[in-house]
Design brief:
Bound molecules: nicotinamide-adenine-dinucleotide, zinc ion
CATH superfamily of the largest domain: Dehydroquinate synthase-like - alpha domain
CATH class of the largest domain: Mainly Alpha
Number of domains: 2
CATH architecture of the largest domain: Up-down Bundle
Largest sheet: 6 strands, parallel
Structural class: alpha/beta
Oligomer: single chain
Radius of gyration: 20 Å
Shape: globular
Length: 352
């Protein structure tokens, strides 16, 4: 899998850099199809089109926002639309949105004509630091997340912080947690700074966003197909995905992905103190940060078996063994730690 070209703001804005790149010879015959959801159509599309000339003649595709729409049915409708518009191998899908749009658009691009090119223009913090980078594309089956997908990397990922100005606060906060995950496994020093800033209620600088995106890109480059060290980025996700899936199927206002991962990191930090050498102090710091920025929901006690079933359905299990990425210490993840059902139950009980 070819790594994506990632554009960060420098002396020129990221959109100006994208404008220059798409004027190049490599893209002279390209036709563009911009995929949005209703929110990114409203808040982000005009800025993109005004700054990137090559996209001014694009066709548009819009899907409904929300995790419950990241389905094979919606993908199928998009394939149908692409066929009707005679989309061919010179065509490029431009995903303008959060991780839901980039997962969906990447998935559609990966299968259409056995793979056409796509560009990610992430508009959420979570997508800028994580979802838009790394070539994993997927849709959900029922409430079970990301079960059907391809590895197919974006040609370009263009990270333009201007899009964050319209992002709702709750979505921004959810993105902070996915950043926290990356810094915890990838950069202890920056993680310390991140904690200090959050605990003091300070804003996170763009440099930190860039660093998190670069860590993700470097890990993906070293292990594009998730066979080894890329699994370090699953920190928080074994429990987190189960909590997210459970919430999606039970709650009127389900948890966001990043919020569920925050809870997953608390649970897995607890496991890390029991099974590896993570300090209790670090475990407490994670809890403090998470509870400083979100109200941790209380789960009904009757739901443990259902959470366990979601974990078993998740892809991070092989055979009958559940595997987690845990932390030996901050910056020192250990992948493929076998965890028993009892230990998972203990961590989930403790989380409550
Ligand atoms: N492929 C990967 O490697 C990977 C990694 C992490 C997460 N993900 C996936 O990413 C998804 C979550 O992504 P997300 O948190 O970006 O959520 P999202 O794409 O659902 O976006 C969140 C909400 O914000 C709105 N929005 C987006 N940008 C906006 C803007 N600039 N202004 C106003 N509103 C805006 C969206 O319409 C949506 O309602 C999940 O499906 C998750 O599975 C994928
Ligand atoms: Zn995630």
């Amino acid at each position: 899998m070819k790594p994506s070209k990632i554009i960060f703001p420098s002396r020129q804005s990221s959109l100006s850099q994208l404008n220059r790149i798409l004027k190049g010879k490599k893209y002279s015959d390209a036709r563009y199809y911009i995929l949005t959801d209703e929110n990114t159509s409203q808040h982000c599309l005009a800025l993109l089109i005004s700054k990137v000339e090559a996209l001014q003649e694009s066709e548009f595709l819009e899907i409904e926002s929300g995790e419950s729409n990241k389905t094979i049915d919606i993908a199928s409708q998009l394939w149908q639309a692409l066929l009707e518009m005679d989309v061919d191998s010179n065509s490029i899908i431009v995903n303008l949105g959060g991780g839901m749009v980039s997962d969906m658009g990447g998935f559609v691009a990966a299968a259409y004509h056995r793979g056409i090119r796509y560009i990610n223009i992430p508009t959420t913090l979570l997508a800028m630091t994580d979802a838009a980078i790394g070539g994993k594309t997927a849709v959900n089956i029922g409430e079970v997340k990301n079960q059907i997908g391809f590895f197919h990397s974006a040609e370009i990922v263009c990270i333009e912080p201007d899009f964050l100005t319209t992002l709702p606060d709750r979505e921004y906060t959810a993105g902070i947690f996915e950043m926290m995950k990356t810094l915890m496994v990838g950069d202890p020093e920056l993680y310390n700074l991140f904690c200090t800033k959050l605990l003091n209620g300070e804003a996170l600088p763009m440099d930190m966003v860039k660093a998190a995106a670069q860590i993700k890109a470097a890990v993906v480059k070293a292990d594009p197909y998730d066979k080894g060290i890329r699994k370090m980025l699953n920190w928080g996700h074994t429990l987190g995905h189960a909590i997210e899936s459970y919430s999606l199927s039970h709650d009127q206002q389900p948890l966001l992905h990043g919020e569920a991962i925050a809870l997953g990191m608390i649970g897995e930090a607890y496991l890390s103190t029991k099974k590896l050498n993570l300090d209790n102090e670090e475990y407490n710091r994670i809890k403090n940060i998470v509870s400083k920025i979100i109200n941790v929901p209380q789960y009904a006690l009757g739901t443990l078996p259902e959470l366990i079933n979601y974990i078993k359905a998740d892809k991070k299990k092989s055979g009958n063994t559940i595997y987690c990425t845990l932390l030996n210490q901050i910056g020192e993840p250990t992948i493929d730690v076998a965890v028993s059902e009892n230990e998972i139950c203990d961590a989930l009980m403790n989380l409550r």
